[in-house]
């Protein structure tokens, strides 16, 4: 089969479909990125053009292909304990936060990708919550991609992925195992118990699911950069509504709320508190 070329008209159809169903706003300059990421999938399905793939998407009423498209379009770049200054801030404010909440914390890792962020949070709380008391700490981890969520729930990581995990954490919270012919590290069950993984689209998802839920901390890092301003504003408003008073919102170091603070106060670079 000859090389597939994404024509401008086909791109505009996919661009609108992705915005409506996934929430990601793709600029016109992303045409070659979309072509590169989708070409293999189009060929695998035996389709002759990106236009035929668009028709396939629209006809798929079960949503399975939309799920696959989400995993291809979204960039699942993550690592254990990234954004070091955020962890330092959280460590400094954890005792007062635990005291205010009576030892009960609820955390949301939004766009958790393959699980490094929620497992980092679980290890952090295991290590830094004072040892003289028992705490009730739970982490909800969501992502739009079922593919990466399966990886996250499996909790198996190659050594290079674990290079940013302190060696004593590796010894305490992971087991060295072989999986599908590869040696790596598997997250221990006692850590997994702190995390609940669920598929959720931040833009089109049904927030009524959170009616009985509120959070003390929300991590949503390096996600809003993919959305346009109205979508960013809407998402920040939803986060504000879901946070308890004085709860924290952590975003990516390349992001800022600026004109979208909506009742948040900046506490440090990329860290905001509901007031």
UniProtKB/TrEMBL annotation:
Q: What is the lineage of its organism?
A: Bacteria, Pseudomonadati, Campylobacterota, Epsilonproteobacteria, Campylobacterales
Q: Which PROSITE patterns match?
A: CHER (PS50123)
By its UniProt entry, which Pfam families does this protein fall under?
A: CheR (PF01739), CheR_N (PF03705)
Organism in which the protein naturally occurs = Sulfurospirillum barnesii (strain ATCC 700032 / DSM 10660 / SES-3)
Main enzyme class: transferase
Which superkingdom, per the lineage? Bacteria
Q: EC number(s)? A: 2.1.1.80
- Chain ranges of the CheR-type methyltransferase domain: 1-275
Protein name per the record: protein-glutamate O-methyltransferase
Report keywords, A-Z. Answer: Methyltransferase, S-adenosyl-L-methionine, Transferase
GO biological process terms, semicolon-separated: methylation
List, in alphabetical order, the Gene Ontology terms for molecular function in this entry.
protein-glutamate O-methyltransferase activity
> Sorted alphabetically, which PANTHER family does this protein's record hold?
CHEMOTAXIS PROTEIN METHYLTRANSFERASE (PTHR24422)
SUPFAM superfamilies the record matches: Chemotaxis receptor methyltransferase CheR, N-terminal domain, S-adenosyl-L-methionine-dependent methyltransferases
The UniProt catalytic activity note for this protein reads: L-glutamyl-[protein] + S-adenosyl-L-methionine = [protein]-L-glutamate 5-O-methyl ester + S-adenosyl-L-homocysteine
Gene3D superfamilies in UniProt: Chemotaxis receptor methyltransferase CheR, N-terminal domain, Vaccinia Virus protein VP39
């Amino acid at each position: 089969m000859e090389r597939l070329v994404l024509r401008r008209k086909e791109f505009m159809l996919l661009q609108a479909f992705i915005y409506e169903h996934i929430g990601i706003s793709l600029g016109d300059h992303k045409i070659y990125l979309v072509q590169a990421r989708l070409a293999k999938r189009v060929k695998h399905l035996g389709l002759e053009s990106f236009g035929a793939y668009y028709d396939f998407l629209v006809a798929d009423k079960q949503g399975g292909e939309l799920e696959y498209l989400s995993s291809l379009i979204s960039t699942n770049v993550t690592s254990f304990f990234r954004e070091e200054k955020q962890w330092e801030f959280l460590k400094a404010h954890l005792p007062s936060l635990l005291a205010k909440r009576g030892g009960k914390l609820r955390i949301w890792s939004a766009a958790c990708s393959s699980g490094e962020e929620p497992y980092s949070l679980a290890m952090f709380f295991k290590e830094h919550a004072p040892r003289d008391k028992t705490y009730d700490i739970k982490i909800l981890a969501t992502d739009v991609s079922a593919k990466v969520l399966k990886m996250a729930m499996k909790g198996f990581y190659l050594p290079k992925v674990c290079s940013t995990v302190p060696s004593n954490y590796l010894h305490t919270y992971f087991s060295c195992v072989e999986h599908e012919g590869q040696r790596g590290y598997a997250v221990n069950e006692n850590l997994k118990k702190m995390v609940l993984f669920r598929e959720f689209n931040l833009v089109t998802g049904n927030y009524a699911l959170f009616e009985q839920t509120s959070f003390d901390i929300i991590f949503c890092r390096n996600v809003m950069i993919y959305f346009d301003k109205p979508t960013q504003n809407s998402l920040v408003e939803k986060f504000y509504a879901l946070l308890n008073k004085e709860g924290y919102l952590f975003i990516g170091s390349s992001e800022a709320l600026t004109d979208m603070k909506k009742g948040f106060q900046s506490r440090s670079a990329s860290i905001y508190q509901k007031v």
